[in-house]
Amino acid sequence: MKQIALALVLILVLAAGCKKEPKAAILAEVNGEVLELETFKASFGEGEWDAMDGPSRRRYVEDWVNLTLLAQAAEKAGLDREPVIKERISYATKKVKANALIAEQLAQMRISEDQLFSYFRVHQAEFRKPAVMYNIQRIALPDKLTAENVLQQIIQGMDFNVALRRYSTENLRESGGMLGFVESTSADSVFWLAARDLELNRPGLLTKDDLWYVFRYTATQESEKEASFEEHRAEIRRKILSEKQEEVYRNLLREVKARSNEIYYY
What we know:
- Among the domains are: about 25-75; about 130-225, Chitinase A, domain 3, CATH 3.10.50.40.
- It has 10 helices and 6 strands; from the N terminus they run H-E-E-H-H-H-H-H-E-H-H-E-H-E-E-H.
- The protein has helices at about 1-15, 35-40, 50, 55-75, 85-110, 115-120, 145-155, 160-165, 190-195, 230-260, and strands at about 25-30, 35, 130-140, 180, 205-210, 210-225.
- It has a 4-stranded antiparallel β-sheet with strand order 4-3-6-5. The protein has a two-stranded antiparallel ribbon with strand order 1-2.
- Helix 5 (about 85-110) packs across helix 10 (about 230-260) and helix 6 packs across helix 10 (about 230-260).
- The radius of gyration is 26 Å and the shape is flat.
- The termini are far apart.
């Protein structure tokens, strides 16, 4: 009996050790070639995939399917074995790897508040334009989990107004959830800040005063005020990074060349 008991324990331990890892979410498959969700998401900017609506996502997936079909047909025809095509593939691969290295360096770069404000002061003439206000429509929800669920339903095709009437927990629901036009200096500036990262009518998510909101902006309007430094912060950061890209490229090239003594020109 003791031996049987030990055998049963061993079987259970082995069975536990052989549990399969959860399968990755798959978006499409073409003749055995698989497109995984997480891998595909990584090819977009941060949060870009999550902010897309259903039709946009399907369009990108369909593009991948079409491209994969054509590439597989080219391989079947043996085109990928032709010297010119092989060289183009090699060059494209090198370019992707080099850009990934540069992007990694840029991602590690920290831009201080002093750098941002100094850039704003030096280039102030470029930023002299009216401030933008966003007309905000929102759905108030009690917690993050509920808000994420409602956001996902809207992304998958539910009408924003239907979701608002069904789920919103605030009195503003009676007036269509319309908060009105907000600007960077208003009491609801948190919505203004978040709206800058969205496209017109695209839903987003934020929290304020212990509530969670699914929101969107339905229109923009110029303010009588001139745009402030805060309103240009994201644009200034992008400009600085763009200028730094060439510097990063040259520094990386210098470092890599210094470590390699096998470069020959013929």
